[in-house]
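Pipeline run #58 for the internal structure catalog. This entry was flagged by the ingest filter as a single-chain record with no existing model, so it goes straight to prediction. Upstream metadata was stripped on purpose; only the residue string is passed forward. Reviewer on rotation: M.T. Logging verbosity set to normal.
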Amino acid sequence: MSTSNHSSASLDYQQLVDDIRLWARQLGFQQVGITEPRIPEQDKKQFQQWLEQGLHGDLEYMERHKELRCHPEQLHEGVIRIISVRMDYLPAETETIKILNEPEKAYVSRYALGRDYHKLIRKRLTQLGKKIEAVVGDHGYRAFVDSAPVMERPLAQQAGLGWMGKHSLIINRQAGSFFFLGELFTNLPLPTDQPYEKNHCGRCSACMDICPTSAIIEPYKVDARKCISYLTIENRGPIPEELRSKMGNRVFGCDDCQLTCPWNRFARHTQESDFQPRHHLDNSDLADLFLWTEEEFLERTAGSPIRRAGFECWLRNLAVGLGNAPTTDKVMSALHQRRNYPSELVKEHVEWALAQHSLCSRG
């Protein structure tokens, strides 16, 4: 297709879609699907029930923007199509299972080992919008990446990218679930893809069975208040005491439900350099991270999703990990060095951790 502007009457939209798929691959996306800005009624109903049951915890923005989530057509004036994309993020050289089995190490969710995906994917989606604009002229577009009240997963399923797994994430038969989603809203009447109607989870309940805190309370329903990702990232208060010992060494997010999913044997490793581990966060001791100064934290998490937790909650999470770690001189020394840290939140979790080691020594 040429790069000159065309009137809508002369546009070959199917050719444009073919070009969009090509450009998206060139920009690092692994798959593209196109759908209407519409959330299926069943998904709206399930979302409303989830809110009514209080399963969103302190995620007040979920409740505050529920109407927009259910009506994506209100997010961008004139939108009639949504281009849904996915991008793999799993780094190749990470000892995922090994780290979970080494309780003195810190486990950081695989998506958070490198740079924050929001800016990268939004930039690529904007570039995709500009490529389209070079062909058709001003078409009215807007990029979203987990940064607005968009129900990404139902839209991705409607765009044919995969199905909703029992852990509530989108699964793709050729790529598992270790990928990010993003959307480009556009005012162009592009041909749409078929929704992904099949569900290939079958009787498998591996994700539900392995969840350390039993947060997947029934198929396709997650209680955020129990989810380690919520507890270590979104939650700003104390971690419920009854859940602390179940967290193990998971200090930022949790991947257990994905790691056990049979479909992730097909997961593809990312080719993006920005998603590769930084500052050895894929293989660091809990005690070493716990002794970072706030300046070191800010420096080493610059441009990282981990910055979202903040230093105080980062220390809280690490204190829990240290409480679950083997009783060693290094672990005990780190905890004692933070015992008088000027934060009641941190001190509470440090005292809990020390009590765990005291119990172990008496047992």
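catalog note: Residues 290 and 315 are 6 Å apart (CA to CA).
catalog note: Residues 1-6 have pLDDT under 50 and may be disordered.
status: ready for reviewer M.T.
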